[in-house]
Amino acid sequence: KIAFKIINSPTGLLPKWREHLVDTEFEGLVLPRDVLTRWNSTYNMLAAFLTMKKPVSDFLDHSSYQMSDLALNDDEWEAVEGLVAVLK
Protein backbone atom coordinates (compact mmCIF):
# COMPACT_ATOMS: atom_id res chain seq x y z
CA LYS A 1 0.00 0.00 0.00
CA ILE A 2 2.81 2.41 0.85
CA ALA A 3 4.81 1.69 -2.31
CA PHE A 4 1.68 2.01 -4.45
CA LYS A 5 0.76 5.31 -2.80
CA ILE A 6 4.24 6.77 -3.32
CA ILE A 7 4.51 5.68 -6.96
CA ASN A 8 0.93 6.56 -8.00
CA SER A 9 0.38 9.67 -5.91
CA PRO A 10 -1.41 12.52 -7.69
CA THR A 11 0.46 14.94 -5.39
CA GLY A 12 3.86 13.87 -6.59
CA LEU A 13 5.14 11.75 -3.72
CA LEU A 14 7.58 9.86 -5.96
CA PRO A 15 9.79 12.93 -6.55
CA LYS A 16 9.66 13.64 -2.81
CA TRP A 17 10.63 10.02 -2.08
CA ARG A 18 13.60 10.28 -4.46
CA GLU A 19 14.61 13.59 -2.88
CA HIS A 20 14.31 11.99 0.56
CA LEU A 21 16.84 9.32 -0.45
CA VAL A 22 19.45 11.68 -1.92
CA ASP A 23 22.88 11.12 -0.35
CA THR A 24 21.84 7.80 1.17
CA GLU A 25 22.79 4.28 0.18
CA PHE A 26 19.25 3.94 -1.22
CA GLU A 27 19.42 6.87 -3.63
CA GLY A 28 17.45 6.15 -6.80
CA LEU A 29 15.60 3.16 -5.38
CA VAL A 30 11.84 2.72 -5.25
CA LEU A 31 10.05 0.21 -3.05
CA PRO A 32 8.93 -2.76 -5.14
CA ARG A 33 5.20 -3.29 -5.46
CA ASP A 34 3.33 -6.45 -4.62
CA VAL A 35 2.10 -8.01 -7.88
CA LEU A 36 -0.57 -10.71 -7.71
CA THR A 37 0.81 -12.64 -10.67
CA ARG A 38 4.37 -12.83 -9.30
CA TRP A 39 4.67 -15.31 -6.44
CA ASN A 40 7.82 -13.74 -4.98
CA SER A 41 6.79 -10.09 -5.23
CA THR A 42 5.44 -9.99 -1.67
CA TYR A 43 8.77 -11.22 -0.34
CA ASN A 44 10.72 -8.75 -2.51
CA MET A 45 8.54 -5.87 -1.37
CA LEU A 46 8.73 -6.73 2.33
CA ALA A 47 12.47 -7.46 2.24
CA ALA A 48 13.13 -4.09 0.59
CA PHE A 49 10.81 -2.45 3.09
CA LEU A 50 12.86 -3.90 5.96
CA THR A 51 16.16 -2.96 4.36
CA MET A 52 14.90 0.61 3.98
CA LYS A 53 13.19 0.74 7.39
CA LYS A 54 14.80 4.01 8.53
CA PRO A 55 14.11 6.04 5.37
CA VAL A 56 10.60 4.57 5.10
CA SER A 57 9.81 5.47 8.71
CA ASP A 58 11.25 8.96 8.33
CA PHE A 59 9.31 9.52 5.11
CA LEU A 60 6.01 8.38 6.61
CA ASP A 61 6.56 10.53 9.70
CA HIS A 62 7.24 13.65 7.60
CA SER A 63 4.15 15.77 8.28
CA SER A 64 4.00 17.51 4.91
CA TYR A 65 3.58 14.19 3.06
CA GLN A 66 0.37 13.34 4.96
CA MET A 67 1.22 9.65 5.22
CA SER A 68 1.63 9.30 8.99
CA ASP A 69 -1.49 7.11 9.08
CA LEU A 70 0.55 4.47 7.22
CA ALA A 71 3.46 4.53 9.69
CA LEU A 72 4.16 1.17 11.31
CA ASN A 73 4.51 0.64 15.04
CA ASP A 74 7.03 -1.78 16.58
CA ASP A 75 4.61 -4.71 16.52
CA GLU A 76 3.87 -4.15 12.83
CA TRP A 77 7.60 -4.01 12.01
CA GLU A 78 8.03 -7.30 13.88
CA ALA A 79 5.20 -8.77 11.81
CA VAL A 80 6.97 -7.68 8.62
CA GLU A 81 10.18 -9.31 9.86
CA GLY A 82 8.27 -12.52 10.59
CA LEU A 83 6.67 -12.54 7.15
CA VAL A 84 10.04 -12.04 5.47
CA ALA A 85 11.47 -14.96 7.46
CA VAL A 86 8.55 -17.21 6.50
CA LEU A 87 8.53 -16.21 2.83
CA LYS A 88 12.29 -16.61 2.47
Description:
InterPro entries: RNaseH-like_sf. It is a single chain. The chain is an all-alpha fold. The protein has one domain (2-87). It is 55% helix and 0% strand. It is built from 5 helices and no strands. It has helices spanning 2-7, 13-20, 41-51, 53-61, 74-87. The mean pLDDT is 84.
Ends distance? 21 Å
N-to-C SSE string, H for helix and E for strand:
HHHHH
How many runs of DSSP E, i.e. beta strands? 0
Shape: globular
The whole-angstrom Rg is 13 Å
Count of the separate structural domains: 1
The biggest sheet, with number of strands, parallel, antiparallel or mixed sense and barrel status, is:
none
The whole-number mean of residue pLDDT values reads 84
Strand content: under 5%
* Broad structural category: mainly alpha
Short description:
The protein has 88 residues and is mainly alpha-helical. The protein has helices at residues 2-7, 13-20, 41-51, 53-61, 74-87.
Features:
88 residues; mainly alpha; 55% helix; RNaseH-like_sf
